[in-house]
Amino acid sequence: MTSRRDPAGIAALLLASAIWGATFVLAKIALVELGVAHLLLYRFVFAVLPFLPILLLGRVRPKGRDLWLLALTGFLMVPVTFLLQVGGLLFTSATSAALLIGTGAPLLAVAAVLFEGERLGRRGWIAVGISTLGVALLVGTPGEGDDWRGNLLVFLSMVAATVWVILSKRLIGRYPALHATAWILTAGTLMLIPISLAISGPPPVALSAGVWGSLLALGLGCTTLTYVLWNWGVARVGAGPAGVYLNLQPITGALLGVMVMGDPIGAGVVAGGGFVLAASWMISKRPRGSRGASPEDPRPSVRWWLDGRPSLQAEIALKWLLGDKTT
User: Residue ranges of the domains in the chain?
Assistant: First the structure.
């Protein structure tokens, strides 16, 4: 059984969110010597390597009817989302970019209303309004190290992420989450390779130790390891309560941006970031007595979309791999 008070599960969720928060600082370090396309190429090649045994030895295979959806989801998940996101870092600070990640929960809630006929409720619409105001402040009040173009690109990456989460719903309902994760990441990486080569040519290998360390951390740490930690934690704590812990990601990212990168904190960053975080908390906090829908439900609730954002709705993923046989 899952338990909201499981210490190990909560620790895994907190650690996963904290590691995700370091993504923008690590990317900023790598961007000193690499272009956006090469950074992403290295990151996702490193990220998919641990999934290769699942792809090569796993007995589950995608059906022909799902190949187009798999390819489209991978394309939106890897090249589109991350070219926008990391491209935005060229113009904005790691702090502002991390705070804008908090728009993911309100965007997914709106998507559930538009595409699944969900009712968001007064609290939900207030959160969406607050989040919109926060984005407007972050984008419209640039300061030192910030540019509206960078903030806008990061926000657009969250819009793209919302689209691929919606598309991934069918895959997650038909296949084990671990396999779906491996296929989507690999498909996206395979499509990223020719795009990266077309944009920037062959990637350089004469990089400093710090950049190599950042790339490995982005690939194996911020991508592969976080999937393991998050999915294992969700399996122990439950998908609903886990959504609240996502709010640590933009907070951690913003703090690291200030402490490590020396990002300045202007009034727009404080006000806009505060609104975004408040909206994310309001949307992701489950009301008492509410129940989320399972991936098999024909009309999944807002909770399903929110809980599925970072981990492809993998409540059961990796339980067998980590030896946890509880249900």
Answer: 7-308
Q: Are 130 and 278 in contact (CB under 8 A)?
A: yes
Q: How many CB atoms lie within 10 A of CB 181?
A: 24
pLDDT per position as a tens digit, 151-172: 889 889 988 988 887 777 777 6
For residue 258, what are its two tokens?
Answer: 């200030």
Would you state the structure tokens that stand for residue 31, as one six-digit string? 């961007």
The pLDDT of residue 277 is above 80: no
Asked if residues 118 and 112 have their Cβ atoms less than 8 Å apart, the reply is yes
Q: Which amino acid is at 23?
A: T
Q: Classify 313 as helix, strand or coil.
A: coil
Percent of the chain whose predicted confidence (pLDDT) is above 70: 69
Count CA within 13 A, CB hemisphere, residue 124.
Answer: 20
Contacts of 91 (CB under 8 A, 6+ apart): 146, 147, 149, 150, 151, 153
Q: Using one digit for the tens of pLDDT, what is the confidence trace for 315-324?
A: 333 333 334 4
- List of E strands, the chain: none
Let me know: does 241 contact 307? Beta carbons within 8 Å: no
